[in-house]
Prior knowledge:
single chain, alpha+beta, Jelly Rolls, six-stranded antiparallel beta sheet, 2 helices, 12 strands, disordered N terminus
Amino acid sequence: MRRLLLTTTALLLACASTQAATVSFQAREDGGAFTTIPTPNSFSTVGPVTFGDFLVSGTGATQGAAVAPTILSAQTIDFQTTSATGHTLDFNVFGNGITGLTGLALLASHFDATALSAGWTATVSTDINGTIINTGTFVGPQSGGSDFTLNGFVLPSVPFNASVDFHIVTNGVGGANLGGALAASAVPGPIVGAGLPGLIAAGMFLVGLGRRRRQRLVA
């Protein structure tokens, strides 16, 4: 099993080193037009920046910066508003031009809410080329919650795009601190269940990612 995990990780690192993808951010309030912040890097931060009634800051990392087996991570995304009126906010972290694995892969999605005001809801989704992989929903008051999901998926031909999408519904003044990530592990063969060790490795990595994120917030 250890040899399989090392082989899978080496494959992902080799793919990541060939061409770095880039990260971009999008936001919109109450269903309006998206504001896009492109970046030239595979790791980037945004904010604190104002989108309508919200102050947003966060980070995104993908191929070339994210540690294998991560495809895309969107961590410590912080949302704050002083508006007494309820609003919706859509905030997306995109990994553009990913050139990692292709074909059948085992995917792990991790969603995390370390702070969510009472009466707020947050839905976090992972997707590839617009196809939703998994979704997690949190209802405030929420602190320290996480949602971890696993499934198989046929990755498209490279390059492809991935995103972590946040949809927040507020009922007034408050905030949310959210995170999401998507990891992939190659299926090593046609034997049923043969890819389970790689999937477990991806899952353990994402759980550790969420734990480190919470520790940083506490510190």
